[in-house]
Write the structure tokens for this entry.
Amino acid sequence: MTAPSPLDLRVAIVGAGPAGIYAGNLLARAVAETGGTVAIDLFDSLPAPYGLIRYGVAPDHPRIKGIVTSLHEMLDAGAIRFLGNVEVGRDLSLDELGARYDAVILATGAIRDADLDIPGIDLAGSYGAADFVAWYDGHPDVSTAWPLDAASVAVIGNGNVALDVARVLAKHAVDLRTTEVPDNVLAGLETSAVTDVHVFGRRGPAGIKFTPIELRELGEVRDVDIVLYDEDFDGVDPAAAPSNQLKIMLRTLQSWRARETGTASRRLHLHFHHAPVEILGDERVGDERVGDERDGVERVGAVRFERTAPDGQGGVRGTGELRDVPVQAVYRAVGYYGTPVAGAPFDAAAGVVPNVEGRVHDEDGALVPGLYATGWIKRGPVGLIGHTKSDAMETVAHLVADAAAGALAPRQGEGDIRERLDELGVEYTTWPGWLALDAYERALGAGHVHTRERVKVVPRDEQVAVARDHTLIRS
């Protein structure tokens, strides 16, 4: 067998979450196996790396955040150069990257909420779960304040994000003090008016999309009663579940039904077989106004649902029975929507970059030489970290094969991209800068009145200042 010819590549990766970091690590290894060399620049619009691991995982999930250790090792190895606070499409164009690099991999993920197209979704008090998650995770582009003045809240969705949102809303702030939750978030949660959180799923208990660990953690929240409804469990048999994972979750739910409730100060209600039909304004609930119209703005007063039933084919059907559930706020957690990159093809209906196994193609189906995609922007916002790694392996394999076949357009520009960023006045951050910011946040946590792993720095300009002032940018 003929050994592969050594490759000499320069590759840009857009997005420094798990998808982008995995792709960079796998690419470095694949090119090394050919005896060649590769220079990899990893760009992110945020000053810090790790994407949704830093800004999309609830602060009380330290076990899930353990993936950061692995990602840290990959970036710390030195084969991938991190350049943060650089937004491709604003600070640098995709065409400019295409000219300076042999290939570009898009790994921008999905950070925006998928739409829930029902009447009233835009009423005051109706929120996207992704925005709330970004707030409690200290995302620099989200307001530091969040309205938590509703006593009864609806969360629409039956996935892990819905459970995260519901758990954080129901949990007492004191029980988050030892986590990395930002100070402004902790202060907001301490004044929360929430007493009842209602989680609604369109399917029955046998159709939930949670994972066992998420569900179990829900039942461990202090001073919160889990409330279930007998009508939702007619005909549900855990022993008949098609997977062990679902068996475990159904048994967990069944055990909660036997719990005594009524002693906790807060309640978390799990409703099944409820399909959202409309969000009602406060003046439309019952015969009298239920909510209060503040400053002339109509606010959420209730959610109207249609009761569903199994359709006999694994799905559900509407029964025609409508129910109005009074709440003062609604969080939609029905999925994420991909983050497009200016200048790259984008399928707005699917929320992904159109591609075939990671090779990007345009709207006419023609492959775009040198442009690739991986992660959620490639396949949609589904699946866990393991899927992200296999995605990256597939995409990188095609990139390496295309490079070996001479199918990549020759790069037109040389020189360090940092010189171009300096010319443009972009205050980019680096890996040494992140290490400085990481140490700074950990020091804040150690010195906090409640000893914490870290206290996140939230404002973007403060993150950038710490990162740039504590490292040599040319490092």
Observations:
- Confidence is low (pLDDT under 50) at residues 286-293.
- The first strand starts at residue 8 and ends at 14.
- Residues 385-404 form the longest helix (20 residues).
